[in-house]
Design brief:
The complex is a heterodimer of chains A (74) and B (220). With 74 residues, chain A is mostly helical. Helix content of chain A is 74%, strand content 0%. Chain A is built from 5 helices and no strands. The model of chain A has no long low-confidence stretch (mean pLDDT 92). Chain B has 220 residues and is mainly α. Chain B folds into 2 domains: 14-96, RNA polymerase sigma factor, region 2, helix turn helix motif (Rna Polymerase Sigma Factor, Chain: A, Orthogonal Bundle); 101-219, Arc Repressor Mutant, subunit A (Orthogonal Bundle), CATH 1.10.10. Chain B is 62% helix and 0% strand. Chain B is built from 9 helices and no strands. In chain B, helix 2 crosses helix 4 (81-96), helix 2 packs across helix 7 (167-178) and helix 7 (167-178) packs across helix 9 (194-219). Classes of the chains: A mainly alpha (74), B mainly alpha (220). At the A-B interface, helix 1, helix 2, helix 4 and helix 5 of A face helix 2, helix 3, helix 6, helix 7 and helix 9 of B.
Chain lengths: 74, 220
């Protein structure tokens, strides 16, 4: 497996959806390639950072409108 | 708001959820407000993936909440409340959206480029074609605990990069990584194939990774 092939398979690798042969080639490549090992670390770090995003609060006026909708329904 | 419902956690246990449904049926405003505070911003983010403006996205979100209220008395709990809410949201957003699904599937299929700049890899006539060039090798991202200065900066870069993703990628990355939904839930909600979902997720993540790498290169 070449590096430019590996970088396209990272999400499938993390999802556990690579077939066993491809997964083995992926793991073997990682053992001998610092660049790809780092790439995988960057990717994991990216996913972790995305997971830490907390949405901004919605605008108070919009929140009020939603709560008004609730009052009207009630 | 009492905070009693513990809605900050995205994964609501079924016991919490039946309490919540009971509270909504009892017309408990604080329960509704807590649910709005948990989900409305994410809903807006997802709705924005289908419609042209923030204003229309807000209308879509509002319509989804009204649909929830109208349906809560007869809600049978066959899916989680969140899944139901987002399903309703997406259906409304699709109707309001201008884009045809056919076009979107074509767009997904048509993309064949790589997610990493091809010039970072060695050429075909190199001894190791397709491998990183020596000066293009990725370096590890630093540990950046939440709340640290670097952590805050990386969070801002990540958020901006997410906002700039093409719509479908943004929706899938938001659902999978920000909201931590599983692939089956997202696949059903968006009615796309497993393979297309993975393609969109991978491309979106790769673009955010690139933004972080660019930022860190400048900052280090």
């Amino acid at each position: 497996m070449d590096c430019d092939e590996l970088v396209e398979l990272v999400t499938a690798y993390l999802d556990g959806s690579l077939d066993p042969d491809t997964r083995a080639r992926f793991d073997e490549h990682l053992l001998e390639c610092d660049g790809c090992e780092n790439y995988l670390q960057q990717f994991r770090s990216t996913v972790a950072t995305l997971g830490a995003i907390r949405d901004d609060e919605i605008e108070p006026a919009f929140r009020d409108r939603l709560l008004d909708a609730f009052k009207n329904w009630r | 708001m009492t905070g009693y419902y513990h809605l900050a956690e995205m994964t609501i246990t079924s016991a919490d959820e039946s309490d919540l449904i009971a509270a909504l049926r009892a017309r408990d405003e604080s329960a509704f407000a807590a649910l709005v505070d948990t989900h409305a911003a994410s809903m807006l983010r997802v709705a924005r993936g289908y419609v042209a403006t923030r204003e229309i996205a807000e209308e879509v979100v509002q319509e989804a909440w009204i649909a929830l209220l109208k349906g809560i008395d007869t809600f049978e709990g066959r899916s989680s409340l969140r899944t139901w809410l987002f399903t309703v949201l997406i259906n409304i957003a699709k109707k309001r959206g201008m884009r045809e699904r056919k076009d979107i599937d074509v767009q997904i299929a048509a993309f064949t480029g790589g997610t990493v700049d091809p010039s970072r890899f060695r050429d075909a006539d190199d001894r190791w074609p397709g491998h990183w060039k020596a000066d293009e090798m990725p370096s590890r991202f630093p540990e950046s605990p939440e709340g640290s200065v670097l952590g805050d900066e990386l969070m801002a870069v990540t958020r901006d990069a997410l906002d700039e993703l093409p719509e479908r990628q943004r929706v899938v990355v938001t659902m999978r990584d920000v909201l931590d939904m599983d692939s089956e839930e997202v696949r059903k909600l968006l009615d796309i194939s497993v393979a297309n979902q993975r393609v969109l997720l991978h491309r979106g993540r790769a673009a955010v990774r690139q933004a972080l790498e660019d930022y860190l290169k400048d900052a280090m």
